[in-house]
Specification:
Blueprint lengths: L1 E5 L4 E8 L4 E5 L8 E2 L1 E4 L5 E3 L1 H9 L3 E4 L12 E3 L2 E3 L1 H20 L5 E6 L5 H12 L4 E7 H10 L6 E8 L4 E9 L2 E10 L4 H20 L7 H18 L4 E8 L2 E8 H7 L1 H18 L8 E5 L6 H11 L2 E3 L7 H14 L3 H6 L2 E4 L4 E6 L6 E7 L4 E2 L1 E9 L8 E7 L9 E9 L8 E9 L5 E7 L2 E2 L1 E5 L25 E8 L8 H15 L4 E8 L3 E8 L2 H7 L17 H8 L5 E8 L6 H13 L3 E6 L5 H7 L6 E3 L5 H13 L10
Parallel strand pairs: 1-10, 10-11, 12-17, 14-19, 17-18, 30-31, 30-33, 33-34, 34-35
Antiparallel strand pairs: 1-2, 2-3, 2-4, 5-6, 5-7, 8-9, 12-13, 13-14, 15-16, 19-22, 20-21, 20-24, 23-26, 24-25, 25-29, 26-27, 27-28, 31-32
Helix pairs in contact: 1-6, 2-3, 4-10, 5-6, 12-17
Length: 678
């Protein structure tokens, strides 16, 4: 039998698809209930209680309880210790899943061998892989990992005939996601998702508990939260009181601790006011997603509530207030995710083409995928985004990696990251991959490195040299990643300076350069002196209406410096119709090692399309082009002709010297010209 499992933070549910009724249905647990508490209790006797029994123990403060461990999935630092053993969130999830499957099999009388498991849309790669492993450890085939809001939309939109754009507002016990989907005749097309995986109903519970405990502490000068067993009791009680507040205007929160009894009246208005900041936190997530997708509230047909915590009246009231849209509630608020997973399980495993043909599911990735790279100035590591968030999945992108002549390496290390920040330490470092098996005779070679998201939003890295697939082996991510905050120069190989470097400087000699020539030649002189070395050659090209080679390739930096005073505006014509990139490319054609062109200009070029085409030829020839502009230079054009990341630099005449100094530093660090822009 195929089943869909909503592996929730606070409650979990198992469902299946009934072909007789063409509807999904929940499989009851052994207590005859649809929802099973996601709680595990370890008793001193060694017995492990799961679900209802465990929650009873949690309420009574007995044993060692594990709850809300879903929030720790993929986190190597999360653990629960009980009876001399340490359990990770993944292991706890396996224990819970085994019990869910066992009880579903007992009550249904059928063997479960294939499952679809739901996860928060904002789960990262580590969390998704941990969920898959937890399912596989139960001895079942995990057909798919599906995002919870997508599953809810599938349940709601299955065979839906009306075209709508729906916002799925999924507030569970421990996570929050908002997803926007287009529903059309049963087809579910996710166009964007955003979330906060540490925001959920538990946070509303905590507000209730802290309110009462603060008042108790004020009255008796003792804090019941200091005692773990009492705190566990209060956590369970807070959830029950929250439920009562969805139906009544006030509750009396009772605390018994150390011989004292406190009774504290809390109105729904008090509760709503105390948790308004949490609703505002969900609005922040919504606003970010709407901005990313360039949507307005008028683009949304309705808001679909999902997750048990959306039963709080404040949620629908708040959403109506900020959106003006219709807010949809239904009896499956707690069950829609599991039912959507059951439908998905049937779709993925079914041989019934009628069923499969009726529904198309399209999802997106919630996180950008990047690779550790080096900034253009060579002074820091950056996260170079390869696949942007909210890209349709599956998604795959190849990036060329050039091993320069003279570099005899036999392996390439690749760090993959998830996150939107350019700062690597702000992102999740997913893996360290080592690529081997490529031919490298030192004459220079190209390797294609591929990055992909599969249908589960799980990340894969692969590599090819020509048509031959290379070995990609995963190694443990180092515990110490502080190097990502440091200077790449400190990590550079000692023999990097032995790699041949070829640099051609192309100088704009149009009439507008006349007042700038003294500072220009001074900056170039310092640049040449800084980058000169026994393995470095320079060339000097001027351009105006025509292009002229001022000095051909030479290892003698004094020859280049000596030629600079001879540079005169208008010596090659008045305009900038001449493009120097083709000439420079020809000069570099037979040179071994790293190849770079530095273009300096202060105005607009005449034959822009022609120049962009020559820049493309340079990129295909693995020549790094850096474009420096000042004065009337067009920044967008600089970006078009630059062929390396951050290779378009707009500066001022007074800062020209420091700009050249920055580029010289990048070249000396070996970071310039080694990373090609896609």
């Amino acid at each position: 039998m195929k089943a869909g499992i909503d592996l929730g933070t606070t409650y979990s549910t198992v469902a299946r698809y009934d072909r007789m009724t063409s509807k999904p249905e929940v499989i009851l647990n052994r207590f005859g209930k649809e929802l099973t508490p996601s709680v595990i209790c370890f008793l001193d006797s060694g017995e492990i209680l799961i679900g209802e029994d465990a929650k009873d123990m949690q309420a009574g403060g007995a044993g060692i309880n594990a709850a809300a461990f879903k929030r720790g999935m993929g986190n190597p630092n999360f653990s629960v210790e009980a009876n001399g053993k340490t359990y990770s969130a993944e292991q706890l999830s396996t224990i819970l899943l085994k019990e869910l499957i066992k009880e579903a099999e007992e009550t249904s009388g059928q063997k479960i061998d294939q499952v679809v498991i739901t996860v928060p849309a904002y789960f990262n790669d580590l969390q998704r892989k941990a969920t898959i492993r937890a399912g596989e450890a139960c001895g079942v085939k995990v057909l798919k990992i599906i995002n919870e809001p997508t599953a809810a939309a599938i349940s709601y939109g299955y065979k839906h005939s009306e075209d709508k754009t729906i916002m799925v507002y999924d507030l569970g016990g421990g996570t929050f996601d908002v997803t926007i989907v287009k529903v059309s005749k049963g087809n579910i097309d996710v166009i964007g998702t955003e979330g906060n995986h540490i925001l959920g109903g538990k946070d509303w519970d905590a507000v209730l508990m802290n309110n009462a405990c603060d008042r108790f502490n004020e009255e008796f000068e003792e804090d019941p939260r200091d005692d773990p067993a009492t705190k566990n009791e209060l956590i369970v009680a807070s959830e029950d009181y929250k439920r009562l507040l969805t139906k009544s205007d006030s509750i009396t929160f009772i605390i018994k601790y150390n011989g004292h009894t406190g009774r504290y009246d809390i109105t729904r208005a008090d509760f709503d006011a105390g948790t308004k900041y949490l609703l505002n936190a969900t609005k922040d997530v919504i606003d970010k997603l709407m901005a990313d997708l360039k949507l307005q509230w008028g683009d949304i047909s309705e808001i679909l509530l999902c997750g048990g915590s959306t039963r709080m009246p404040q949620v629908s009231e708040y959403l109506k207030q900020i959106s003006g849209r219709e807010v949809i509630t239904h009896q499956d608020t707690d069950l829609a995710v599991a039912k959507g997973a059951a439908i998905t399980a049937e779709l993925y495993a079914s041989t019934d083409t009628r069923l499969r043909g009726d529904v198309r599911i399209s999802d997106v990735t919630a996180h950008s995928l990047g690779a550790l790279s080096v900034s253009i100035d060579g002074n820091k590591y950056v996260n170079e985004i390869i696949i942007k968030r909210n890209s349709k999945i599956p998604a795959s992108v190849k990036k060329p990696f050039r091993i320069q002549e003279g570099n005899m390496t036999d392996h390439i290390e690749v760090y993959t990251l998830q996150g939107e920040s350019r700062v690597p330490t702000d992102c999740v470092v997913l893996a360290k991959e080592v690529i081997t098996g490529f031919a490298n005779d030192g004459s220079g070679t190209a390797i294609d490195i591929g990055y992909s998201y599969d249908e589960n939003s799980v990340v894969h890295v692969y590599a090819y040299q020509g048509d031959e697939e290379l070995h990609v082996d995963s190694e443990p991510v180092p515990e110490d990643l502080t190097f990502m905050s440091g200077n790449p120069h400190d990590m550079a190989a000692a023999d990097d300076s032995k790699i041949a470097r070829n640099i051609i400087i192309c100088v704009d000699l149009s009439r507008s350069m006349k007042p700038s020539m003294e500072q220009v030649t001074s900056a170039i002189t310092d640049f040449v002196k800084t980058t000169a070395g026994e393995n470095t050659k320079f060339g000097l090209v001027g351009f105006g209406d025509k292009v002229g080679v001022i000095r051909d390739m030479t290892a003698d930096s004094d020859v280049i410096i000596g030629a600079l005073p001879d540079l005169k505006p208008n010596m090659l014509g008045r305009g900038t119709d001449g493009c120097p990139l083709g000439t420079a490319e020809s000069m570099l054609a037979n040179q071994p090692g790293v190849k770079m062109i530095v273009v300096l200009t202060d105005g607009e070029w005449g034959k822009r399309d022609f120049a962009v085409g020559e820049a493309l030829n340079c990129r295909n020839s693995h020549i790094a082009v850096v474009a420096i502009g000042f004065g009337e230079a067009d920044t967008s054009f600089l970006k078009q002709i630059a062929t390396v990341d951050e290779g378009a630099v707009y500066t001022t005449l007074s800062s020209l010297g420091s700009t050249f100094s920055t580029i010289a530093t990048a070249i000396n660090n070996g970071s310039m010209g080694l990373r090609e822009r896609k």
